[in-house]
From TrEMBL:
PROSITE patterns documented for this protein: CHEB (PS50122)
Pfam families in alphabetical order: CheB_methylest (PF01339)
Protein known as: protein-glutamate methylesterase
Top-level EC class as recorded in UniProt: hydrolase
Amino acid sequence: MNAVHDALLAGRKIDAVVIGASAGGIDALLRILPALPRSFGFSVTVVLHLPDDRDSRLAEVFQQRLAMPVRQADDKMPLEAGTVYFAPPGYHLSIERDLSFSLSQEDPVHFSRPAIDLLMESAADAYGKRLAGILLTGASADGAAGMARIAACGGLTVVQDPLDAEIATMPLAAIRLRAPDAVLSVPAIGALMAAMKETQ
């Protein structure tokens, strides 16, 4: 690990990663996730804002590019280490205390369902300081409150550098609400995620 990774990860044990993204997020994720080794020992759960009137092919598209197994999250599905999960369209995705997924069709949050905030807040309550939250490019304030909850629970918070983001609204909202542990470019976020393996 380099000095930045050492400083961010020192003394941490990470069991799970949650990632939120909106406009421009697919490109950012395609630059981050394919570099993760198959032996990456944490679950990675992603909420990407999608139209809720069509099926999602995200799991299929990313599985073709990742060494790790990729699945679309489903209700009551237990989280497994070393697996990437994508939220299905049209449902809010939460993580329960027993580390299983829960789907709901409550009202949209920030005009989005799934909402990043709901995933991150529930994951923070489930994992506490063992969670890492990453917020990428996007055009709403979704994710800001979720990142603040992760920080309040002692988890690691990383926001994409607004200057590096396709749309800076989402990263800026999170930074303004509560300063994250790190503000990094997409390549640096990918390198940090790879370094997380050494915290196991």
